[in-house]
């Protein structure tokens, strides 16, 4: 089992995270997935760990589960996150705390644990799922808290890519547009589709394909891959 590649995916119970779990399994990886409400899997090569990823003890349990069960951690996909769309003055202290706790704390604790393991192995890959709104704000989608927190995930990619380049660990980010997931009401889909130059919302598979490209591109590190239907190109 220690020769099989292992992916750890946060926010793995639905939407993009669930799509990533399925895709990595199709590619032969064992998977450890985390979410606050994730059921046990019947697949012997999937371990699901319930809990709030912003809690350092949960983050530690997720990585320890991967090492104890499968012997290693090859890839970490930091997919868990919250998106709170409000005008700036409408954000509450709870909104602020929630965004920082999940989007930044949920990255920081588990990534430290994963990179420690990857450093011992001499190889590894971390992918952060951010949002294209970090670089391409849109007046139709108020996103200050997402930009503040997901912007941190984008910025740290380059810093860590350089810090760990000589140690065999890569860091990249996928920056999606608006993706069809349970987070978005169906009646709002036409409005969201119109925000993309290609005229449609993204599908979960679009983001999954982006992450898998980065997974299979060993000479790519410190990269932001826009999966946003042309939003980053202009409008």
TrEMBL record:
CDD domains: SDR_c. Coiled coil: none annotated. InterPro entries: NAD(P)-bd_dom_sf, SDR_fam. Pfam families: adh_short_C2 (PF13561). Belongs to the short-chain dehydrogenases/reductases (SDR) family. This is SDR family oxidoreductase.
């Amino acid at each position: 089992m220690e020769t099989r590649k292992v992916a750890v995916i946060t926010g793995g119970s639905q939407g993009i995270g669930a799509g990533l779990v399925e895709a990595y399994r199709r590619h032969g990886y064992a998977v450890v997935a985390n979410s606050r409400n994730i059921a046990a899997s019947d697949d012997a090569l999937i371990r699901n760990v319930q809990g709030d990823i912003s809690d350092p003890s949960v983050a530690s349990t997720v990585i320890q589960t991967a090492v104890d069960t499968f012997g290693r951690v090859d890839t970490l996909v930091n997919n868990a996150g919250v998106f709170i769309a409000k005008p700036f003055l409408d954000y509450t202290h709870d909104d602020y705390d929630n965004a920082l706790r999940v989007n930044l704390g949920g990255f920081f604790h588990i990534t430290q644990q994963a990179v420690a393991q990857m450093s011992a192995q001499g190889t590894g890959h971390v992918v952060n799922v951010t949002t294209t709104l970090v670089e391409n704000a849109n007046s139709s989608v108020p996103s200050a808290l997402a930009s503040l927190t997901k912007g941190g995930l984008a910025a740290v990619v380059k810093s860590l890519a350089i810090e760990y380049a000589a140690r065999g660990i890569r860091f990249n980010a996928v920056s999606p547009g608006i993706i069809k997931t349970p987070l978005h009401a169906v009646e709002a889909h036409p409005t969201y589709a119109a925000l993309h130059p290609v005229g449609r919302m993204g599908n979960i598979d679009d983001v999954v394909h982006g992450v898998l490209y980065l997974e299979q591109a060993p000479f790519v590190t410190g990269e932001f891959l826009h999966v946003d239907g042309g939003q980053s190109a202009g409008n």
